[in-house]
Fold this sequence. Notes:
Layout: H1 2-43, H2 52-64, E1 72-77, E2 81-89, E3 101-109
Antiparallel strand pairs: 1-2, 2-3
Helix pairs in contact: 1-2
Amino acid sequence: MSSLAGVTMFLAFLLLAVHVVIGLYAASVVTDAATAGARRVAGSSLTDDPDAPNGAEVRIRTALGALGDSASITWDLDPDTVAVTVRVRRPTFLRAFGAGSIERTVRVRREVLR
């Protein structure tokens, strides 16, 4: 009986660890995709590309993979900064711990030649 309890606890902790790792990996991927998109738009101010946010949004969705299909991407373009907010539903391995969402906002200063 004690062996069964030990194995059950081991598997429970293993599943919890997998759940945490999946959540951390997803948060890292969202942050990286948002940063790359914001840098792309901030760098496009040198070329004055008006379609840069649309192109960067496509790249963000591609980088997010399956999470990108339902991602909410919002841009805030100022003369000095570019901000992008990416919100996705958190992938879960264990439904008992809830889903929630991952929201990352990245601000990048625009590059201007002086």
